[in-house]
Amino acid sequence: VAMIVVRALGEMVLHRPSSGAFVSYSREFIGEKAAYAAGWFHFINWGFTVIADSTAIAGFLIFWKPISDALPQWALALLALTIVLVINLIGVKWFGEMEFWFSIIKVVTIIAFMFVSIFFIVTSKDLSSDGQHATAGLHNITDSGFFPNGVSPMFMLMSGVIFAYASMELIGVAAGETENPREVMPKAARAVVWRILVFYIGTITLMTLLLPTDQYKKGESPFVTVLDRVGFHIGGVHMADIMSVVLISAVASSMNSGLYSTGRVLRSMAMAGTAPRYLAKMSKTQVPYWGIFTTFAFGLIGVGINYAWPSDAFEMVLELATLGIIGVWSMILISHLMMVRKAKRGELERPDFKLKGAPFLNIFGLLFMAAVLLLIMFGDDPKAAKAVYIGGPVLAALMVGGWFLVRGRINSEAFDDEASRMS
Fold first, then answer.
1. Which string of b and e fits 361-373 if b means at least 16 CB within 10 Å?
2. Interatomic CA distance for residues 385 and 389, integer angstroms
3. Per-residue pLDDT tens over the stretch 212-245
């Protein structure tokens, strides 16, 4: 489904390159209301993702006893959010520098982990610990089967999977800002396929070969679990602790990108009239500080959630972030569906790089995301359902009310113009 979304967006980029991406295409093929909804769905996605990221960092830090004794989880979430806020406010140079190192750390680590895992699997390394017997190899899958707990958990966890694939739609924004999007976009879309196969599916496959699935622990990263079993030490420092630092850098990278992108999208929306005007203000260093501060203020909700419900904070905001992702992806698929219909009527010509199987794949993707939404609402996790039952109507009411406030002052072309200048 993620690839359907990327291919659909890629075709629209080749039809008309735009740094406004899915917001611009929602306006062109559906209407102004759809563009308004797409922009705010994007903010909902990244706003709650920032909360989820700060919660995840606090969750990693809390496992180190000296830190957990010094600060509660809510304070750690606030600290992480504040540090990333400062990085973004300094200027784009600092953002780019930090993002570069965050990315280098996580990519190098995951590749090293994969090579080490393959060595353990080939040599059938004994990973037994604390009375739990385990040896790396194919038998960890064949002995228990592909669905040791039944098929239903695969569906129950789907919202978390969608959350992990979020931001793939930003490939359209990046491609729309390049000098030659008609050459870049097809290459980028194909590269996404290989990265999914290697970094997502490849890593998960290796993990299932290293340990029986029932030996992974709730509340602990599977990377940490594996390295804890291996027992590597570097200069007295445990490899599991090193991996925790790497995971913190990876999550910080996501939060860094969230503040960066939402600040600029909110500014663009303010210029177009679909967001409050104060969000259009820029600093002397060309930082949309009010947009970044607004996302930071939104992130403070997460600090409150970490204070009130520390053990459930991540799951609660994950479900709400997923609502934003489903909204953005749905807008992309519906926009593309309308584009295909226009092409069939002879009103435009589809580019060579197209989503084959449209409109049926569009409908399949939309039904899939509707099913995920229903699984959240009626699944086995009452806390996740409660988050959607309460949060969904509140967000919907805010968006509908916001539309009536801004509909009279919308400048349809400003979003694309401003986004292009900021690129």
1. bbeebbebbeebb
2. 6
3. 888 888 777 788 788 777 766 555 556 667 777 8
| Domains identified in the chain, total number | 1
DSSP 86-118: HHHHH-HHHHHHHHHHHHHHHHHHHHHHHHHHH
Q: If we measure between CA atoms, which residue out of 71, 48, 47 comes closest to residue 59?
A: 71
* End-to-end CA separation in angstroms for the chain: 28
Contact indicator for 302, 78 with CB cutoff of 8 Å: no
What single-letter amino acid sits at 107?
Answer: V
DSSP for 36-68, written as a single string: HHHHHHHHHHHHHHHHHHHHHHHHHHTTSHHHH
Q: Which two tokens stand for residue 19?
A: 């740094």
Query: What digits encode the pLDDT tens for the residues 143-187?
Result: 878 888 888 888 878 888 888 887 787 776 666 666 777 788 888
- CA–CA separation, 143 and 163 (whole Å): 30
Query: For a pLDDT cut of 70, what percent of the chain falls above it?
Result: 92
For residue 359, cis peptide bond before it (omega within 30 degrees of 0): yes
How far apart, in whole angstroms, are the C-alpha atoms of residue 34 and residue 17? 19
Q: How many whole angstroms separate alpha carbon 149 and alpha carbon 126?
A: 25
CA distance 82 to 100: 20
CA atoms within 13 A on the CB side of 421: 9
Supply the CATH number for residue 393's domain. 1.20.1740.10
- Single-letter residue type at 146: F
Per-residue confidence (pLDDT) for residue 359, from 0 to 100: 92
Which residue shows structure tokens 């930082």?
287
Give the residue numbers spanning the domain of 181.
2-422
Taking the model in full, what pTM does it have?
Answer: 0.84
From CA 152, how far away is CA 86, in angstroms rounded? 43
Residues of the chain with pLDDT under 50: 418-419, 421-423
How far apart CA 13 and CA 25 sit, in angstroms, is: 9
With a CB cutoff of 8 Å and minimum separation 6, the contacts of 61 are 67, 68, 76, 248
Closest CA to 261 of 15, 22, 8, 69: 22
